Amino acid sequence: MPHLMLSCVVAIILLMLPGALAARVLGCRGVGTIALAPLITCAVYGVLGCAYAIVGMPSGPVTLFAVPSVIFGAGAFVRSRIERGRAGAPAVGAHVRERAPRVHPLRERALTLFGHDISWAAFAASVAVIVGLVTCATVFLPSLGSPDAFSQNYDNAFHMSRVRTFMDTGVYSSLAGGFYPSAWHCLAALIGVTCQASVPMAISASMVAIEGVAYPLSMFVLLAALFPTRPRRVVLGCLACTMIAYFPWRIMLFGPLYPNVLSFSLMTAVAGVFVVLVDTETERPRRIRAAILFVIGGISLALAQPNGVFSAGVFLIPCCLVAAARWARAAGASRGLSVLAALGCALLIVAIWVALLCLPFFKPIVTYPRDTPVNWLQALKWAFHFSFVIKRPQFMAGFIVALGGLGLVVERRGRWVAFGYALTVALYVVAISFSGQLREALTGFWYNDYHRLAAAAAVFAIVPLSVGLDYVVGAIYAIARKLVCVKKAGALPRAAAVVCGLVACVVFAGMYVLNSRPVRFLPEQYKSYGYDAVMYEMRDMYGCGEHGETGPLDAPERAFLDRVADEVGHDAVIVNQPYDGSVFGYALDDLNLLFKQYNPPDDPAVAEICLHARELATDPAVRVAIDEVDAAYVLQLDQGAGPQDMNEKGSFYLNGYGKESWEGINLINDETPGFTPVLAEGDMRLYRVEAA
Fold it and tell me: Among 48, 212, 50, which Cα is nearest to 129's?
């Protein structure tokens, strides 16, 4: 574990430092430079990775991290010196105009620590990071079992192989092999190279950095933008930013969708920047900075996972309508014209949506087939108590979100937030319970995937959750004021305030327990199983649960792969059948496998090998195919017949597997002419392909 802890620390530095320095160059100050750092860093890594690949320059710790950090650091130093020089000079035009400064309660002192005043903003951001890291330490890391544990699901074979390719080649480009958003792969590869860590360890460290630091800070940015005059809501939202178990932990079990985890972790910061950008009261310098950050954020989401752009966009649709109306009113338009401005904005959004749906690029994504396991009423029920696809409720979170949502509807300026969250929930309901063209039109940009849309809804639920918690605290204070007979509005007496704070802490602790764990004394139908369920599934996925090892690659097979690496090195091409677990041999041991992911490449020679490799000695076409891919060895980890042409007592992955597509490799044995056994252990074999 020490190596994993070191990798986590390095991952946080890699994710934070370049972005923090760049934010300072843009004019951000204080906690803003830290909170926006992950968003900027991901854009920097994604863009530079593509640029370096185009010009033929390798990416790595020096070119991708050190060089930008030095450049941004120099820019930040120059910016600080310029600002220091201006500090003593009178503002231009100060003698002809006076404007009351805008009130920013988040900048006011929350507490004094070791002689230093801590603002509410800094306090809230610190709370968010502490909560995020504690959640990682109590939920994610204990579920790993081993620092080198990894998910053996379908998508992860691709993700791990891509990270290994980045590490081996120094090409960290989203354009490598066709466009695939790879900002997360850049980060994981950078961690692996910097720390000399295995691919699984680099992935785990990246998750700690993202979910322990980037996501909480991103949520802080959104909350601070929405409630600039309500510090208590911002702090409570940061305290509860990991209260809903579905994100990020359950979404990591499906796929796992690591790029989506990164994108969804950053999209709240982009949404927060947009709120500041369109606010009619935002000062011009701050608006210009927000516009630049919004563009950077869009690049970051697009290179992490583009459906993060759509998720943030859906949440912000009501914001756009309200902003259009407010800008029209600010320009002197009548109430009727402001309504028309909002209607025009809505029509523009619909037109852009339809235009994107018609693009050929999106067609295979929009029409991706999915099941519809429940009806819309059941889907609404799951959304209310955050069961989603876990089928394990979190009633406390559901009730507080409902309370906060109702409060936002009552509050005039916050009404759009409630409708934005409702839209994300509505898309989840459509994706999981509807089918046909309606679903494709509304949820196609997410592959019609209710897992991703559930995650998006879980992320934005934190906003009404923070409002609901604020009402709870307000009720506690109101009751305390009644008890101490305070007639006038204002601060409570010190003793009463202390008692009130203690009561609030007790209430929050009870709410956390009721929301996180199944409490024995509650009736079965009211127990909250959210975190209990995701931890159970995570332990099972990583092989340390009650079922022991799960997945196609078990411990003896991993040891056999190590022997294969010692025997053949890292250059010889090895024909493998990926569904027996060998697909992970490239990521783990840098074996030059023919199949580094489950789905085979569309190549006639590869297809010939899959179907007829065992006929090498008798079929010239097979020899031509073998020579074309320069295959030197054949690897089997579950040799045998059985119903799947693999040892039925072995460990293999059957999702998407069809034995008729792999008979040429599966049916090779010790007597097959043209193949000489090199390593043999149980049902595991390594054969040398003999020359013609």
Answer: 212
| Domain C-terminal end among 460, 476, 494 | 460
Query: Are 450 and 560 members of one domain?
Result: no
With a CB cutoff of 8 Å and minimum separation 6, the contacts of 322 are 342, 416
DSSP 644: T
Full-model pTM = 0.93
For strands 116-119 and 109-113, give the pairing: antiparallel
Range of the domain at 614: 555-689
Q: Which residue has the tokens 């809804």?
A: 457
The H-or-E segment that residue 291 falls in is helix 284-304
Residue 251 in any domain: the answer is yes
In a domain, 575, yes or no: yes
End-to-end CA distance of the chain: give it in Å, rounded. Answer: 49
- Please state, in angstroms and as integers, the Cα–Cα distance from residue 383 to each residue in 247, 392, 523, following that order: 13, 11, 21
**Which runs of E-coded beta strand occur in 282-408?**
none
pLDDT, tens digit, 9 for 90 and up, residues 634-674: 999 999 888 888 888 888 888 888 889 999 999 999 999 99
Residue 1 tokens read as: 């574990």
Question: For residue 682, how many other CB atoms are within 10 A of its CB?
Answer: 14
Q: Can you tell me the distance from the alpha carbon of 69 to that of 18, in angstroms, rounded to the nearest whole number?
A: 5
Task: State which of 425, 442, 460 marks the end of a domain.
Answer: 460
HSE, side-chain direction, 13 A CA sphere, residue 478: 6
Pairing mode, strands 675-681 and 573-576: unpaired
- Does 152 fall in a domain? yes
The total number of residues shown for the chain amounts to: 692
Say what the pLDDT of residue 94 is: 46
H-assigned helices in 578-682: 585-589, 604-612, 620-629, 663-666
What's the structural domain count of the chain?
Answer: 2
Q: Which amino acid is at 671?
A: E
Q: How many other C-beta atoms are found inside a 10 Å radius of the C-beta of residue 436?
A: 8
pLDDT one-digit tens code per residue, 223-271: 999 999 999 999 999 999 999 999 988 888 888 899 999 999 999 999 9
Are the C-beta atoms of residues 547 and 646 closer than 8 Å to each other? no
Instruction: Decide if 507 is inside a domain.
Output: no
